[in-house]
Amino acid sequence: xxxxxxxxxxxxxxxxxxxxxxxxxxxxxxxxxxxxxxxxxxxxxxxxxxxxxxxxxxxxxxxxxxxxxxxxxxxxxxxxxxxxxxxxxxxxxxxxxxxxxxxxxxxxxxxxxxxxxxxxxxxxxxxxxxxx
Length: 132
Prior knowledge:
Elements: H1 2-17, E1 25-32, E2 35-42, E3 45-48, H2 60-69, E4 77-87, E5 90-97, E6 100-101, H3 103-110, E7 121-131
Antiparallel strand pairs: 1-2, 2-7, 3-7, 4-5, 4-7, 5-6
Helix pairs in contact: 2-3
């Protein structure tokens, strides 16, 4: 429940019910596939344990944004979730587009230049696009 509140709740509240908190959600206008969307962008959610330090690559958001803008989008509401975790100097990557595994998103995450760590850390991001 805590992860949901920290990483998803505010974005969904802003996108679906118009109750935005500018400290929790950034709102931008994006053009994707020739259509205008309001993008509701959560903060990067980070966690670490046992002395690990969560490291977000400097260009990660720009890379994610560009990857989404290359998509063909149909429908009024679309959402994208990103997850990376590091442990024992290896990584796990997951990217979802509308709750389906999204290969382009995974490639985007893998190419971002993450810092290896022997300790656990994770980074999450949720973006919801609503057609205007």
